[in-house]
Amino acid sequence: GTGPDDGDRRPRPAISFELFPPRTDAAALALGRTIDRLAEVDPAFISVTFGAGGSSRDRSLTVLRYMLEHTDVEPMAHLTCVGSSHAEANRLVREFLDAGVTSFLALRGDPPAGAGPDTGLGDLRSAAELVQLIHRVQEEREPFGQVGIPGIPGATRILDRPRPERVAVAAFPTGHPRSRGIGQDVDVLLAKEVAGANLAITQLFWHADDYLGFVERARAGGVTIPILPGIMPVTTPGRLARLQELTGVPAPSELAIPLEIEPDADALFDLGVDFAADLAREVLDGGAPGLHLYTFNRHEAVLAVLDRLGIRTPAHAGTERNTRER
Ligand code: FAD
Hints:
It is built from ten helices and eleven strands. By secondary structure, the protein is of the alpha/beta class. α4 (about 125-140) packs parallel to α5 and α9 (about 265-285) packs across α10 (about 300-310). Bound molecules: flavin-adenine dinucleotide (FAD). Flavin-adenine dinucleotide binds near residues 78, 80, 105 and 178. InterPro entries: FAD-linked_oxidoreductase-like (IPR029041), Mehydrof_redctse-like (IPR003171).
């Protein structure tokens, strides 16, 4: 090799991050700084979660607009369709497209706690229907096919069908909590691809085999879109327990126990970062197309993971020790 990135180094895997909309003005300020730091590593996109029931639509849009106005990063908007009518979902997609967002993570979402299995589900019954709707709204908004050229009477040109940059969907390596089995999760993922999804992003998982085994089953089942592994460095025992509650994915004892017994904050940080970096290395070695890092709105731990993997450039690296999360 000749360049600095040659030799036995692989091309850098695609990196992406996930954030959630801040709940306070102070958190919003801190998030701007976090986004700036994440943008420095040139991620493929940064996604912003969407509160169930549409409660945080405006707050999601604020974060997405910040990215559009202050960074070169492609913003990706999570959208959920549970509880919305066709008209509402249409309006929602339009509003994000009008703001300049062209990448989406299409989710069904969860019905409000306590709701019965069929109450409040709205018109759209699955993430696949939302994927179709995003494509339809995008097509209706922009002309395609044979269109006139303004100012030149009679002249026409062929415009390609406009496409959103990315329409991503969720995938569940250890099964969705409501799933009857992994086979069903593969079927649902395939249905989302058929509907027009061009990327899958996984729920958290704690063992590389969960991800690699799921990808193998998905490929055998006919899924061809890239499946990005979702990985979160978890640096406190409380957060690990909370994630188990939120995702239904059992926390791994080989991380939970060391986090429980470690009293020192710096050592806790290293435990969580090392675990995530090891997992990331294993899935990349197994063929993962990139890494989607859950940030919990902090840049320190995810950037430290990239440092451990040797993915950041030296100019970016080595600055996290003094600013790490306590
Ligand atoms: P789907 O993919 O449609 O279904 C999930 C699973 O449910 C399937 O794998 C299958 O096991 C089962 N299932 C689906 N359809 C059927 C059927 N017809 N019959 C029987 N079983 C079926 N939630 C939010 O509110 N906001 C967010 O921003 C958000 N971001 C997320 C990001 C990622 C990467 C992930 C993995 C999840 C996120 N979620 C978010 C959570 C998501 O809303 C929940 O997982 C929800 O329960 C299902 O949505 P889905 O799009 O995964 O559904």
